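Retro notes - structure team

What went well: the batch runner handled both jobs without manual restarts.
What didn't: labels got mixed up in the shared folder, which is why I'm recording both outputs here explicitly, each with its sequence directly above its tokens.

Job 1
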Amino acid sequence: MKWFYRRDVDGFFGLFIDNLVQMILIVGFSLGLLGMNQEPGFLFGTVLPGVAVSVTLGNLFYAWQAVRLGRRENREDVTALPYGINTVSLFAFVFFVMLPVYGQTHDFRTAWRVGLAACFLSGLVELAGALVAPWIKWLLPRAALLSTLAGIALTFISLDFANRIFALPLVALLPLLIIFVQYFGNVRLPREFPAGLLAVLVGTALYWGLGYGDIPSLAGTFRSFEWHLHLPRWCGGDLAAALRDGGRYMAVIVPMGLFNLIGSLQNLESAEASGDRYGVRSSLVANGIGSIVAALLGSPYATTIYIGHPGWKALGARAGYSALNGIVIALLVVFGLTSLIAAAVPITAGAPIVLWIGIMITVQAFAAVPVRHFPAVAVGLIPAIGALAWMVVSSTLALAGTSFPAIPAQAWAGFAYAHQGVGFISLERGFIVSSMLWATLTVMIVERRFLAAGAACLTLAACAWIGIIHTWSFDAHGALFHRFMQADLWQPQWQYAVAYLGGAAFFALMWAWRRRQT
């Protein structure tokens, strides 16, 4: 097992494009929503270096972990766990933690400090979860863990990037076919040229050559660029001051920490299904430490083990793609080159690689489970599809200048899909947990383990009752928020908890009836 192979280049470009998207989101949110446009140097000199250090350390650790596993098992086909900024936590900490604080105080530094506390506490939750994670992984069936990943991959990865591809077909369809020829058709390109690199180069050339890019703006970005050395800064004092206020946001921080923990477990199961069995506790401890280091060095964004291991493995990536990604991210941030790369390389050029990754994750969810568990995988996809549907509906209404609660009830009269908006909202709330639990429930039904199915229903009922899944509310402005954030133990959507309790009673009766039959 070596540190670098030729096809690590393809894996690097895929992972780098994904990390670049997160960087662009961070810059956009920080300058456009959190008030850091008042002092852009703070973002590029404090926040982004903290992000870079946490991402780089994690990537290097998981690359080393892969090399060690390969040498221990005398294999050359071990692929490192992908690692980076958690998108779900990024959105949650921006919109539910930092943005409300900035709205109250109009001080971006105060909002940033509370974000540091959220990131630090989320890392502690992940660190503590490493103690019980092996037991959770043993308890849940593989179909439950992999179907959740497949749902996210199919919707928020594959369909999202398919939308980008088909929005600019002259730019992205040819790169997509290049990827498909090598990785679906197993056809080597001349001189072993990496298909991922060729796809990015062709997509970038078409984007600028066909006039889709703003060349004057790009030229202005390069002309105004000035070299600066942005080294990480110790922010432990700011973090300590913020931890006093961080407790007010535990209703956001704890679920995000748990979701990160669950997501990491799912990704470890995905890697194991691909043939790479990593230590659960060591992987999760490194994951939690990454978020803690991020907070101490000024980043309010939690890191986590990424989705996508089977895709990177199918690309032929090993350990080098992870190490290379971390090193390049660090160099770009330290030398202030992030804005130049974001301006020069369109996301559409890298979209085919990310779409491929999503497809491979979905394929693995079916390939790595028994055929009789296929229904469980299919059921586990539904909450993520519902979540994507709600995102499309809500975004469309927002663009139209309205929102779901603002539409009068009579406007829905006679409309065949009148109740689907509410259904999609309920599916979207906590869909990672509901997807996993519904897939577990389906496996128990397939195997006729009715007491276990009843226990799954009771767990779903408890989650619905305290607001982890299905529960939601609108504020006076029509904005949607999660009822769990109010720590309200009696949710408006109480029907879900009652329905799940009914399901638990039904399975208890089925268990008793089958016992009498035998």
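Job 2
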Amino acid sequence: MADPGLAIDFALAGVAVGSAAALSGVGLVVCYRLTGVLNLAQGGIAVFIAYLLRELVVVRGWPVGWGAVLCLLVVAPGLGVLLQLAVFGPLQRRQAAIGEVVVACVGVLVLLIGAVAAIWGTTPLTDVPSLVPARTVTLPGGHLLRVDAVAQLGTVLVIAVALWAIGRWTGFGVRARAVSADPTLAELAGVNAGRVAAAGWAFGSFTAGLVGVLLAPLVLLDPYGLPLLVMETLAVAVAARLQSLPIAVAVGLALGIGQSELTWLHPGGTLGPLLDAVQSNLFAVALLVAALVPWGFVEGFTEQGLLGGGGVPQLGRRRGGDAGWGSSWGWGWATAVCALALLTPLALRAGGVRAVLTVPALALILLSVVLVTGGGGLVSLGQGAFAGLGALAAALLASGRVPVGAALVVTVLGLATAGLLIGRPVVHRRGLVLALVTFALAVGLSRFVFEQPYATAGLTVLRPVFLRGDHAFYAAELAVLAVGALLVAAVRRGRLGRALVAMRDHEAGAWAAGVAVPRVKLLVFGLGAGLAGAGGVLLALGGEAFDASVFDPVQGLLWFAAVVVAGVDSAVGAVLAAFALVGLDAATVPGMSAVVVGALAAGAGRLPGGLAGRVRRAVPG
């Protein structure tokens, strides 16, 4: 029987994480209500402010108090205002589609993460300053209570009460409620919605920075782990339906305390390792549940908010009358240049081939984004997870000494089937909800499969003898990429391609024209999963290992942003993005690719058709 005293101790220990999660939820709710944007960039802001505070305090010797004042009260709100003025304000003024807003958020996220990696490196850090000393107080009964946890809980409650008072009794609160209810009518009544949105971004960035500073001493500080941990607290805001501050506070505290309580349970049996993973990743479980369960607020995600716009982004459409997607497969100059760039490494020495060995595999994964997002208009942030499943399947099959060709075929067919099964509850979502659901699936696979020893321990990936040389393997990669490209071209030219264009351009019109929209979405989702899985197989064989960090959900967001920037409506864009991701980091410092891709993605609305589209317009094929 459980010891009640031990349960109390674990509950008290969970207050710190729960308070940070509640604060994150409060920031997301307020930012969404004032701006209409679900701040997917919150994790990037959090990690940037946490690293900046460490730089000031640990490296430069500032007092913690002064460093916190500069980071949390000057830099973080200023960053939020800058985002409103430079990124989201222009999108708001031209009523951008939801897809463009998602891309901009992802761009800001990867830009900040890349900046952190480029400036401070990727080595995890432990010497992180704490705002409140980690002292403990002994309660009656011998229970220990951490002073910093009490301070964090008090901060959350004070902020929540202050927000309630501002919204109820101040002029700004009246204007904010008007903008939240209907920004157009508020503007007609003389309310400056842009200033209200700037205040929302300033507060959202402040809370994101505070969450990063509070969580950093509790976990390792690294550019990828902390942002993902903060992004998992999206579950708190979704559970609050992006409206209720009390629910956000209650859910955040409940999840933090619940995760702490579960850590002292040690289930046995076959399912023991899986249950252990669930216990230590309760926020990821909550995100999956919050994203998948239809709680009746899907319409609010896709239609409400300052940015309005439809649920399905027009990311694949190009201006200037060219409405087809993937038409760059006509043998124009852009295609020829990409083909030449892919073939050139075959003439290099072994070291030169080794440097670009991952390019065709990555291009194949990005080609799945071209098919799903560029062709179908489905904002899927989970293609990297399907690639990870492909890599894991390759490792499992290679461990059983299955021939590489058979392993590739089995993996592609299996993942296409899995994509159909997973896609069934997913494809009925659209816009921001679809993006959130696919990201939640990526987080779930990463936390409960890729990072768990029960799924990946003891796996070895060896290339067959005839592919042991880098030149031979690179040639095989090019052959598989060519097959994938021909598949995408065949889809574009066939009935499915025409149905995709109709569905992407106007879903209601496609329904009226007799297009079976759910079936078309499901089919393209399955095909995309198969393509991504094939790319994952090649990545695993190229590195001769299964590396879970390669398929981190944050890495998947970088891949998505890269192909959108390069040109999500063309295979040329997938190849350009692959070369950029591999080449920028190799030629400069790790994280530079994220900086460049993030900066371009944040302004993707000003780059119709991506870089590939600009190349086509400059040098027509």
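One thing worth noting from job 2: The two ends are 74 Å apart (CA to CA).
We'll revisit the folder naming next retro.
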